[in-house]
Specification:
Helices cover 76% and strands 0% of the residues. It has 18 helices and no strands. It has helices at 4-11, 21-32, 34-49, 53-77, 84-92, 94-126, 130-133, 136-155, 158-187, 201-212, 217-220, 231-258, 260-265, 271-316, 336-355, 359-385, 394-415, 421-440. It is globular. The chain starts with a helix and ends in an 11-residue tail after the last helix.
């Protein structure tokens, strides 16, 4: 006889063994949105650290890779699609786990505003509709459509999402490399004159963290991946290695071609839309704009994928209402979580685009802080999670996590005074709202409410 609990467990099953190493890696890279991230962040990096931007990008990858190794260690023991939420919950208790889960969700909600705005503006520019590109209501309308379309594709199944990502990623990487080659050729040199910008090194590292963020999506689809205890970690490490090389090369080429001054002047915008026509001509400029559009759309979908799964995991452990754990019996994807995340993203996006004069800069800063916070929490969780299980794995379970935690703690402390009031206000409101929501939900008694 089938029990209610058995039915609920089967109803909550994501599609097993749907992804191999290649699709999992593509999801990790696409979630970082290489073309979009470079477009909105290189100008900020130039303003903060000048011609040291490529070096900062390379060095910033070190703590990111350390955190990736922390994810690998935790995932080997508990491959849960909620990633940081269940791991920090087990280490520190449900209260902390809830706040870490909320931080993860809100970072994704905020970045959706960037993605939707870039996608809408670049679509209008690609079509020659410059007046609409400057219209906030027009940006809000088209961005809303894009979020809805990508939410539908994410809901339709993980395999469709993975193949979509592979195709879109190929387009944007080819376009970025084409830009870099032409920029180096036009500049006629590989050397950079020393210019430290504003000398805000910690803030520059935060921006670099924003560029790399996304690799953890490979872990978020672990329950749908073949060899779930191993494949996500390999995919995430490959994704990080690929991104390090790509980002350093593109940032270097942009600085060689344009210089620190012009990039700094457009730090609150994106430099591709300003420089691409002069470098590549009208047709080439449109192709690059199309690549950034593709990148933003791809990342919109790959932001929905992990966040819906985080919300699903939180619901399975009674940190979110039980309805968020519902899974489509046809597509084996989170149904309620995907819908709610899409709606919340639209509401936040429309509000920001209609009221903020610096949507890109404020959201980049706020997201970088939130991501650093949940990376920090995950790193600290490792030695606590494995208390009493350190024999033979002290390096993986103590040394690496403490180095990662120390790195992000130092960067966060040093960057607070430099990041600006806009991002910090957004982070503060996010955390207060999260605390009110999370702690208003009474944790279930021991042995109750868990599936």
């Amino acid at each position: 006889m089938t029990t209610t609990a058995d039915s609920r467990s089967r109803g909550r099953s994501l599609r097993r063994d749907a992804l191999g190493l290649g699709p999992s890696t593509a999801i990790g890279i696409s979630s970082s949105a290489p073309a979009y991230s470079v477009a909105v962040a290189v100008g900020l990096l130039a303003a903060y650290v000048g011609t040291a931007a490529p070096l900062v990008l390379a060095l910033s990858a070190v703590p990111v890779v350390l955190v990736t190794l922390c994810f690998r260690e935790l995932n080997r023991t508990e491959p849960d699609c909620g990633t940081t939420f269940p791991w920090t919950e087990k280490a520190f208790g449900i209260g902390v786990g809830r706040m870490v889960g909320w931080t993860t969700v809100m970072a994704c909600v905020l970045v959706m505003s960037n993605l939707a705005q870039v996608a809408s503006v670049y679509t209008y520019l690609l079509l020659g509709l410059d007046d609409l590109a400057d219209s906030r209501p027009a940006q809000a309308a088209l961005g809303t459509v894009f979020i809805a379309v990508m939410a539908v594709l994410a809901y339709r199944g993980i395999r469709i999402a993975a193949w979509t990502q592979a195709i879109l990623l190929t387009v944007e990487v080819v376009a970025l490399l084409w830009f870099a080659v032409n920029a180096f050729r036009e500049a006629g040199t590989l050397s950079l004159a020393t210019n430290t910008g504003d000398g805000k090194w910690a803030t520059g590292v935060l921006v670099a963290v924003f560029l790399y963020w996304g690799w953890d999506s490979s872990f978020s689809v672990n329950e749908e991946t073949r060899e779930p205890r191993r494949t996500p970690a390999v995919a995430a490490l490959i994704a990080n290695g690929f991104l390090i090389v790509l980002y350093v090369v593109v940032a270097w080429s942009a600085l060689v071609y344009a210089g620190v001054g012009p990039l700094t002047e457009i730090a609150d915008d994106d430099f591709f839309s300003v420089l691409s026509n002069d470098l590549l001509g009208t047709a080439g400029g449109k192709l690059l704009i199309g690549a950034v559009l593709v990148s933003a759309l791809a990342s919109t979908q790959t932001t929905i994928l992990p966040t819906a799964r985080t919300m699903l995991s939180m619901a399975r452990r009674d940190a979110f209402p039980g309805q968020f754990a519902r899974i489509s019996t046809r597509f084996h994807t989170p149904s309620v979580s995907t819908l709610v995340f899409a709606v919340a993203s639209v509401l936040i996006y429309v509000t920001l685009v209609l009221t903020s004069d610096a949507v890109l800069a404020d959201a980049v800063g706020a997201v970088a802080v939130l991501v650093s916070l949940y990376y920090l929490a995950t790193a600290i969780a490792v030695p606590v999670y494995f208390t009493g299980q350190l024999k033979g794995r002290v390096l993986q379970r103590v040394v690496v996590p403490l180095l990662a935690a120390a790195s992000f703690a130092v960067v966060l402390v040093l960057a607070v005074s430099d990041v600006g009031t806009g991002p910090l206000v957004v982070v503060g409101v996010t955390m207060v709202v999260g605390a009110l929501i999370m702690y208003s939900m009474k944790p279930p008694a021991e042995g109750e409410g868990r599936v």
